[in-house]
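Re: that backbone. Tokens:
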């Protein structure tokens, strides 16, 4: 599952509109998509016409209290909008929960661990973040392989780019991994000279990190949101619908080079466990160290291109194949390598 966080510390840039309509557009391409509303304001939840009884706050609270999740709660929180478009909604309860999370040692890993435990069979997970760079947004960034930053036509948008770069460096230094960032120009008025000049500036400044898709200003996008609909349900032939279809195809292209593969192993007493294999030259590297995601489970997400990879787990001087993977082959020392096939 490819996890994409939609993030900007500034409100009014089209963040939620992008999260909702990109999710739906990807589902129209035949992808199974999960939208997670991580904003206490719950704008994405309202934008798809949902009044939920259970939300992402319930999942996060259950995990922080028990270290695990009940399947019954997961089923209550996960809402099916179409056969390929699902949402985990939000509520104002996230606001108080954010303070609780900030006191935990693993405060930045909660959402990542929840996604590992849920083990959902989706092609994409889109996370609509709060309009700030607090603990909830940092959780989304740590859990993501990619981040999409909507930029409105404003000088304040460019000032926020530097802050996001600093956060990216922080996550890279602290977690030894960080999402790939892409920027999306929104609310573009091609008739306005300021918009045209702004476009040239961001192309020079952001270069290949700026997506070629541009979301043009379109009143139907806000109308759809206020009605609890996507643009494709409200005005499927509008410019807004055309632009988000184009964005979905571009996201599919830029995220298609590598797939995020999840590995999980059961065990309580590991004193540091790593995955080693063809993808890291069989070296015990800190970025390939598994994290405890439950009292008896450890997990990791690793980006891999299509192919076949040999791998093992390593802990305390001991090498052993993945006990949950039946695909194995003999190694040169009389043991077994696990085989990972990425299609």
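Recovered sequence:
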């Amino acid at each position: 599952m490819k996890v994409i966080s939609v993030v900007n510390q500034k409100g009014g840039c089209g963040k939620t509109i992008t999260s909702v309509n990109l999710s739906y557009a990807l589902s129209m391409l035949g992808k199974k998509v999960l939208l997670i509303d991580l904003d206490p304001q719950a704008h994405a939840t309202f934008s798809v016409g949902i009044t939920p009884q259970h939300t992402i706050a319930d999942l996060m609270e259950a995990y922080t209290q028990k270290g695990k999740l009940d399947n019954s709660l997961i089923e209550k929180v996960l809402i099916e909008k179409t056969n390929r478009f699902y949402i985990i909604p939000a509520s104002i309860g996230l606001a108080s929960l954010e303070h609780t999370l900030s006191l935990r040692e693993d405060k930045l890993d909660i959402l990542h661990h929840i996604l590992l435990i849920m083990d959902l069979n989706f092609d994409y997970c889109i996370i609509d973040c709060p309009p700030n760079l607090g603990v909830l947004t940092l959780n989304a960034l740590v859990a993501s392989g990619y981040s999409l930053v909507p930029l409105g036509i404003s000088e304040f948008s460019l000032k926020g780019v530097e802050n996001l770069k600093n956060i990216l460096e922080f996550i890279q230094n602290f977690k030894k991994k960080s999402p790939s960032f892409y920027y999306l120009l929104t609310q573009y008025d091609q008739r306005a000279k300021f918009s045209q000049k702004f476009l040239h500036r961001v192309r020079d400044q952001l270069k290949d990190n700026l997506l070629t898709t541009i979301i043009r200003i379109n009143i139907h996008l806000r109308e759809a949101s206020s009605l609890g609909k996507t643009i494709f349900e409200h005005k499927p032939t509008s410019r807004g619908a055309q632009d988000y279809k184009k964005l979905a195809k571009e996201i599919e292209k830029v995220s298609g080079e590598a797939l995020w593969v999840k590995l999980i192993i059961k065990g309580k007493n590991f004193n540091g466990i790593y995955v080693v294999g063809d993808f890291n030259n069989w070296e015990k590297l800190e970025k390939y160290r598994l994290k405890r995601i439950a009292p008896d489970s450890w997990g990791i997400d690793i980006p891999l291109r299509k192919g076949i990879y040999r791998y093992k787990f390593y802990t305390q001087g001991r090498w052993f194949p993945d006990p949950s993977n039946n695909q194995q082959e003999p190694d040169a020392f009389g043991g077994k390598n696990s085989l990972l096939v990425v299609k």
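The chain has a mean pLDDT of 91. The chain has twelve helices and 16 strands.
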